[in-house]
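Try this one yourself first.
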């Protein structure tokens, strides 16, 4: 069993529409170039491939992509875009599921490692990445940093989006390293809002580096975005690359 919350059919069916802005060629271009360069002439494995928002266009760039996905509903949406021969997907959790063959790249992006709600499972995720990597291969994670600097004493909630159709804010448990993202989304024009939330375990870059060392991986690079901007104390997220020794 995994602690990751399972995405439902309703969530899967509206996911691509809600992520349309992040799925445009302009938005995805730097990430696809970054990942394709690391994959080189080898194969890429995407943990939590979802609806194929990244995996499908990466495959279209000529990188052979294989996916692991916990939600059958998310994988079903991907199947509308690419068949099994074009982009194989195994249903299972990213911490323990094993697929055949070796890979030059394993990647886990868009904060998804935080879906594993225990440190133990996050460590196992690193071990699973290392298990699939060929010598010299890389494991890439994209992960946001919790908004702790925005929390004055006594406050536990921080808004991250306030717009006409969406209100989003995070609540943070500093002891358990847990963050809950709350969303109020207006679907129509009748003034009604749909409420949803998701739980995440946040981890600092230093903790992830230790997980990588446990899995036998070495930090190669850390940047603030897919364009390669320097990672600083003011960065809102990081792209980290760990390498399996040759």
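Now uncover the answer:
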């Amino acid at each position: 069993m995994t602690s990751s919350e399972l995405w439902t059919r309703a969530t899967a069916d509206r996911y691509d529409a809600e992520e349309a802005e992040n799925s445009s060629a302009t938005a995805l271009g730097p990430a696809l170039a970054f990942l394709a360069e690391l994959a080189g002439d080898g194969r890429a494995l995407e943990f939590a491939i979802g609806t194929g928002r990244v995996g499908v266009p990466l495959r279209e760039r000529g990188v052979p992509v294989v996916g692991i996905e916990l939600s059958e509903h998310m994988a079903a949406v991907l199947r509308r875009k690419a068949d099994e021969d074009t982009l194989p997907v195994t249903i299972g959790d990213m911490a323990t599921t094993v697929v055949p063959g070796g890979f030059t790249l394993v990647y886990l992006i868009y904060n998804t490692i935080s879906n594993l709600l225990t440190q133990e499972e996050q460590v196992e995720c690193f071990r699973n990445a290392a298990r699939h990597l060929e010598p010299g291969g890389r494991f890439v994670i994209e992960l946001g940093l919790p908004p702790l600097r925005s929390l004055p004493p006594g406050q536990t909630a921080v808004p991250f989006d306030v717009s006409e159709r969406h209100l989003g804010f995070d609540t943070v448990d500093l002891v358990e390293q847990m963050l809950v993202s709350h969303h109020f989304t207006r679907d129509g024009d009748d003034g009604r809002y749909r409420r949803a939330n998701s739980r995440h375990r946040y981890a600092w870059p230093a903790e992830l580096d230790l997980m990588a060392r446990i899995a036998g991986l070495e930090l190669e690079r850390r940047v603030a975005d897919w364009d390669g901007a320097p990672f600083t104390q003011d960065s809102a997220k990081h792209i980290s690359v760990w390498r399996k020794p040759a």
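Discussion: The longest strand covers residues 133-144. The chain is about 25% helix and 30% strand.
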